[in-house]
Amino acid sequence: MKLRDSRKMNTPELMIIPMIDIMFFLLVFFMLSTMYMVDLKTIPIKLPKAENSSVDTKTTFAVSIKKDGSIWLGDKQTDIKSLTMQAMMEQKSNPAFAIIIRADKDSDYGQVIALLDTLKGAGINRFGLATDVGAGQ
Q1: Pairing mode, if any, of strands 99-103 and 61-65?
Q2: In-domain check, residue 28
Q3: Which ranges does the record mark as transmembrane (predicted)?
Q4: Which terminus of the chain, N or C, has less C-beta within 10 A?
């Protein structure tokens, strides 16, 4: 009869695979839950598509230019002068301030340039142009 060796201790085994599964589940859960936390009030416009674009949600102002040339800040219609004043006040209080311009693909390109020129003249230098993520057109 063979007796157990008393010098040998049974060490507990750490099962790593279930822990990895739980970590991936938590990662997916938090990624999906943060996507629904961002509430961006905008008006519906058709954005042009771009192949090499990225999404950045750390902006302060989302400015939309509709097909008819009207300018919207969030869900309120505005003009270039009042938008510039609001942007200048925001930039003073927020050094990481940026503006995302969502121009309809059928809108006047000169309107976008006029808006950019006016904002740059007011000292606002952080811009982004919104596009739909997908194949370029």
Answers
A1: parallel
A2: no
A3: 15-38
A4: N
* 111: in domain: yes
Token digits of residue 85: 């004043």
CA distance 69 to 79: 10
Please, are residues 55 and 133 in contact by the beta-carbon 8 Å criterion? yes
Instruction: Report how far apart, in Å, the C-alpha atoms of 34 and of each of 24, 26, 54 are.
Output: 15, 12, 17
122: in domain: yes
Interatomic CA distance for residues 90 and 61, integer angstroms: 9
Alpha helices in the chain (DSSP H): 16-35, 80-93, 109-121
Q: What are phi and psi of 21, to 5 degrees?
A: -60, -45
Q: What is the pLDDT of residue 87?
A: 87
- Count of structural domains within the chain: 1
Whole-number pLDDT of residue 22: 94
Asked whether residue 40 is domain-assigned, the answer is no
C-beta separation of 99 from 112 below 8 A: no
37 pLDDT more than 80? no
What is the CATH number for 91? 3.30.420.270
User: What confidence category does residue 5 fall into, taking pLDDT thresholds of 50, 70 and 90?
Assistant: low
